[in-house]
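Thread title: Can someone regenerate the structure for this chain?

I was given the following input by a collaborator and told the matching structure tokens would be attached. They weren't. Posting the sequence so someone can regenerate them.
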Amino acid sequence: MAKKVRIYSTPTCTYCIVLKRYLDEKGVDYEEVDISKDEKAQKEMVEKTGQMGVPVTEIGEELVIGFDKNKIEELLDDKQ
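Best answer:
Regenerated them for you:
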């Protein structure tokens, strides 16, 4: 079973846009959470990471801060 992928992002974040484009190209399904509109999700993200910056990608139980392509690929490949 594929791991759930969730992205905490904002519409104006360049790295968020690049990350979503990358996942789309790989055919990865993900849930996008816009923390600029969802204060509860923003607090949840900060509690999980201690970070205010986006993107934060949750792949299964793992968190990736920023667009760390190598780490994301490693975690996605793990799901197969």
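The longest strand covers residues 5-9.
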